[in-house]
Amino acid sequence: MTRHFLRDDDLSPAEQREVLELAARLKREPFSERPLEGPRSAAVFFDKTSTRTRFSFAAGISELGGAPIIVNAGEAQLGVKESIADTSRVLSRMVSLVAWRTFAHAGLEEMASNSSVPVINALSDDFHPCQILADLQTIREQKGELAGLTAAYLGDAGNNMGHSYLLGFATAGMHIRIAGPEGYHPRADIVADAERIAARTGGSVTILTDPAEAVSGADAVITDTWVSMGHESEKAERVATFGPYRVTAELMSLAAADAVFLHCLPAYREFEVAPEVIDGPQSVVWDEAENRVHAQKALMAWLLKESE
Ligand code: CP
Ligand code: NVA
After folding, report:
1. 3 state SS of 144
2. Atom 2 of ligand 2: nearest residue by CA position
């Protein structure tokens, strides 16, 4: 059966562990998995801009022995002159896997349901699961065992990162606290899914409005832009609302003394995080960015093997 990765909970807890183990090995031995040797091709579509996702997929596909085909918005018939389903059927005859950064998550589901090769979510309006694998790899490098750790995510709690932290961190058995202003909370169905997962893994899910309560004693403090791609017209309103969620040195001082700071990047130092935090000793954002390559290589190798 072809396996896809559209949401963080498309991997079971055991499967997520396997992917993270493989990611750690690929970081030590970058060329030890060559499932795309040939080279076999992999398509990567971008309907939104990207630096990390673009380069990490391109580098990762090459390092797995393959050839990346990067397609930007407006360059393919996809979803405009041809249905997503028809494009998906064609791609299945030509490439070994498809990654897609897009707006509506439903488009990814349509791509996957018509694909005989793995489809990977490279960010949708609802989820960014590849980023969460890199974050888990980074936290694991710093803290060892993930299960039982507490992470606090502050800011736009209802965006793709908020949703993916809920599902991905609950899958890892972590205690995930999400804090954002009223009106920017995660979707109820995703919270319910994360709670179901946490009940099995020993993790927990807490949704808050108070940033200090979220950060108190946490092992990891995380934020993201207040203005995600597609929401640019709401910038003034969001900047006015999210002020109390800015991660400052004062807020970090409420976390565990050895807490790490993560941010998926790109970061806005005038808004969601103060320079002394993101550029300070607790920040692991550069490891986090690098780990996009290792985690996605592991994910691609794993999906290809499981889909054989
Ligand atoms: N974190 C992340 O996905 O970065 P890009 O938008 O640059 O790909
Ligand atoms: N929430 C951000 C993540 C960027 C990597 C966005 O969707 O723009």
Report:
1. coil
2. 228
How far lies 196's CA from each of 60, 151, 200, in Å?
33, 18, 7
Among protein residues, the one whose CA lies closest to atom 1 of ligand 2: 228
Task: Name the nearest CA neighbour of 249 among 271, 277, 223, 273.
Answer: 277
Strand blocks (E) in 36-90: 41-46, 67-72
- CB of 51 closer than 6 A to ligand 1? yes
Q: Is the pLDDT of residue 77 over 90?
A: no
Q: Which atom of ligand 2 is nearest to the CA of 50?
A: 5
Q: Which helix (H) or strand (E) holds 134?
A: helix 129-143
Kind of pairing between the strands at 260-263 and 97-101: unpaired
Burial label for 294, CB within 10 Å (0-12, 13-18, 19+), is buried
Query: Is residue 139 within 8 Å of 149, Cβ to Cβ?
Result: yes
Sequence-distant (≥ 6) Cβ neighbours of residue 254 within 8 angstroms: 212, 215, 216, 217
pLDDT tens figures, 215-274: 999 999 999 999 999 999 999 999 999 999 999 999 999 999 999 999 999 999 999 999
Q: Which of 53, 123, 238 to mutate to test the pocket of ligand 2 (most atoms within 8 A of CB)?
A: 123
**Which residue's structure tokens are 């999210």?**
242
**What is the pTM (predicted TM-score) of this model?**
0.98
Decide if 86 is catalytic: no
Q: What is the mean pLDDT of the chain?
A: 98
- Residue 76 has what pLDDT? 85
Pocket of ligand 1 contains residue 50 by CB under 6 Å:
yes
Query: Residue 221 is which amino acid?
Result: V
Rounded Cα–Cα distance for residues 279 and 100 (Å): 31
Is 175 catalytic? The answer is no
Residues 154-185 have pLDDT tens digits of: 999 999 999 999 999 999 999 999 999 999 99
